[in-house]
Amino acid sequence: MNGNENQDLQRYNANERSNHWAVALLFVLAALSGLALFHPALFWLTNLFGGGPWTRILHPFIGVAMMLFFLGLAFRFAGRNRFKAHDRQWLSQWRDVISNQEENLPRIGKYNAGQKLLFWVLVISMLALLFSGIVIWREYFSDFFGIGMIRFASLLHAFAAFVLITSIIVHVYAAIWVKGSVGAMTSGKVSRAWARKHHALWYDEVRKNQR
Amino acid sequence: MATQDIIARSATTTASPSVRQFDEVAKLIDTTVCIGCKACQVACSEWNDLRDEVGDNVGVYDNPSDLTADSWTVMRFDEHETSEGDLEWLIRKDGCMHCEDPGCLKACPSPGAIVKYDNGIVDFDQDKCIGCGYCVTGCPFDVPRISKKDNKAYKCTLCSDRVSVGLEPACVKTCPTGAIVFGTKDEMKEHANWRIQDLKGRGYENAGIYDPQGVGGTHVMYVLHHADKPQLYSDLPKDPAISPLVGAWKGVAKPLAMLAMAATAAAGFFHYIRIGPNRVSKEDEAAVEHDAAQAGTNSPDAGGTSDER
Ligand code: HEM
Ligand code: SF4
Ligand code: SF4
User: How far, in Å, from the CA of A24 to the mean position of ligand 1?
Assistant: First the structure.
């Protein structure tokens, strides 16, 4: 018997994991500092950043730093997130997905259609946040834009942030819900049974390459 | 100064201290009487201890050429050619309009950085300002300016410090022609009516008051010779209102977005409680053993092929 057969499968290498967690940490900081200004009920969050002015100063820099790391992540993962024919089928069976009846679903590769959807929503909302964020960055950039543009960007920034934060709530919950997933981003490994159950085509592919 | 007569407060969802009540005040600026001497600009920097940088002449009388964090009022000069070919010099004292429904206050994210007093004055509290510039985005009159020195927002206070102790604003006190008057809003409207009658009698049939209802009326009003065309006066907006974009950004969308984010988290929580986690089962593990056994004895292609990359 092949000696590899009982070992866990490598899903992410050390660089990918570091990149992911850099984005995650910066996202939390960007989201908390942004939400502090988003609604009066959350203004107290400015205390986490040293008060209102510091929150206003830090937020855009945190956002830009997050963007830079996110770009790295996006380039690493984009190829694997292209939509395939089976993704439509998978999405149409969302009821089976949320009721844990995975055996009814088509066999899928490294990412399921939900993960791919999340990936592209993140790409779009991050870009929207970057461009609108620069327009509303009063200290350095707003003087270059007209008032109509600034108003539009303010609305877009708040909306894109809402989409992004809501998506990340779903993303985090999915990691809690589907047991055995978190290891992929901590140790980098997942069990063979996990891979076979959730990402059968990827499981096949990895096994084939191990031979 | 006054802290018991606040009827609106930025980024605040509960009632503000508002037991004390006052009459609504207003400043009336009569453009038909103004001679453009800028005494009011001087009085403003005197009273408020503001000394703006000395700038450059940009070829017109406007000086400084725009409102700044240190120049809270500016005379704007416009040369207007009438249909008869006559020249009219339309001079407008620009500055905060002290809107009944202030877009700056609506946009400001910092609790109490912008307040509106019961008498109608809209005031910035720089100590609470965080320098984000949202007030600039919200204002329909392009009034607030963020100082490059301290990143705080500044604008005309309508001399709230003077008014609260029974004095008129400094510009009013100084105006040599009586073009600026101050009193209760009702008195000022009456005064304006009398002025408009006079102007109409002298051939200005479109003379009128500028008290735009799109922002609920203002506590700085103008008498204009051409009230039908306020744009003639250095782009004074005809029907100013809080932009629908700002309304959408700061209106019901926000509480709804908060609710939706909380609901998403709650949906996750209850999904976990009702349906529960998705775990790898004993059968899944057995299947892996089976695949491995097959792979050991059989062809390398145990689990089927895939073109997925
Ligand atoms: C990509 C780079 C980003 C830039 C340049 C940027 C810039 C800004 C700026 C300039 C503001 C106004 C407050 C201030 O001056 O600090 C702001 C507000 C905000 N940002 Fe960002 N940001 C970025 C990324 C993000 C991200 C990733 C999130 C969410 C996770 C976010 C969420 C928010 C929120 C919720 C607000 C408050 C919006 C409101 O008041 O309605 N931003 N951002
Ligand atoms: S004119 Fe602008 S700054 Fe003044 S009260 Fe109205 S919205 Fe606020
Ligand atoms: S710059 Fe200051 S006054 Fe203007 S909206 Fe921001 S916190 Fe409020």
Answer: 16
CA dihedral A182, A183, A184, A189 (to 10 degrees): -160
Q: At what angle do helices B253-274 and A147-177 cross, to 10 degrees?
A: 10
Give distance in angstroms: CA of A152 to centre of ligand 2: 19
pLDDT tens digit sequence for B2-30: 578 999 999 999 999 999 888 999 999 99
Question: What are A21's strand-pairing partners?
Answer: none
Q: How far away is chain A from the Cα of B198, in angstroms, using its nearest Cα?
A: 38
Q: Closest by alpha carbon to A29, among A3, A4, A55? A: A55
Residue B296 has pLDDT above 80, yes or no: no
What Cα–Cα distance (Å) separates residue B58 from each residue in B52, B81, B142? 16, 21, 20
ipTM of the complex: 0.92
Report the greatest alpha carbon distance in chain A: 70
Q: Characterize the bridge pairing of strands B220-224 and B6-9.
A: unpaired
Whether A114 contacts A91, CB under 8 Å: yes
Question: What domains lie within chain B, and their CATH numbers?
Answer: 1-239 (3.30.70.20)
* Residue B309 pLDDT grade (very low, low, confident, very high; cuts 50, 70, 90): very low
Nearest to B141 by CA among B162, B122, B116, B160: B122
